[in-house]
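Severity: low
Component: inverse-folding endpoint
Summary: output formatting inconsistent between runs
Steps to reproduce: submit the following structure tokens with default settings.
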């Protein structure tokens, strides 16, 4: 009994999910903490998907200047209500996104936002590299497609591995924050300055 209570407490602290949600997830996973964590993440993604159609017009602009004063970031993060925009969890999320942008240098928010000319330039480079491998054309096409997908994921903020927890992406962090705060949250735009 005590170990179940400890598991519930641990999962609540990690996921910020409600006690009954954590308890149900543990029951579904037959007491396995990792399984319960997976169940909670899947439910959180479903909740976030439902909320994604709601308009996010409130929010804040977070500024981050790196300790050496050579890198600065402004990021706009929106939510549905001013109430949520003033919460410490929302502000912490915006701060973490700004810190991530300073560290990882994404060029856009989502992969579909990558400029066509940058995508075409990278594709030409990858095509040339793969052609030099001497593989059959069908395999070359698959290699190019895989490398382009990987490159796009590395360039877009939401698909990059989160700098503080590399086992999750910034998009996962966004989903977790949506689940925690119960509102649609959108990273609208950012700008990064570097000397």
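Observed output (run 2 of 3):
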């Amino acid at each position: 009994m005590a170990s179940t209570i400890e598991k519930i407490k641990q999962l609540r602290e990690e996921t910020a999910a409600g006690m009954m949600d954590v308890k149900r997830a543990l029951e579904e996973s037959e007491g396995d903490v990792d399984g319960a964590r997976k169940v909670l993440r899947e439910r959180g993604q479903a909740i976030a998907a439902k909320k994604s159609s709601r308009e996010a017009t409130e929010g804040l602009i977070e500024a981050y200047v790196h300790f050496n004063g050579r890198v600065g970031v402004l990021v706009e993060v929106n939510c549905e209500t001013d109430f949520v925009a003033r919460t410490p969890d929302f502000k912490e999320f915006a701060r973490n996104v700004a810190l991530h942008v300073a560290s990882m240098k994404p060029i856009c928010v989502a992969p579909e936002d990558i400029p066509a000319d940058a995508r075409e330039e990278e594709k030409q480079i990858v095509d040339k590299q793969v052609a030099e491998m001497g593989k059959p054309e069908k395999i070359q096409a698959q290699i190019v497609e895989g490398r382009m997908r990987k490159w796009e994921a590395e360039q877009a903020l939401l698909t990059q591995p989160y700098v503080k927890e590399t086992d999750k992406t910034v998009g996962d962090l966004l989903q977790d924050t949506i689940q925690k705060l119960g509102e649609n949250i959108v990273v609208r735009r950012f700008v990064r300055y570097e000397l």
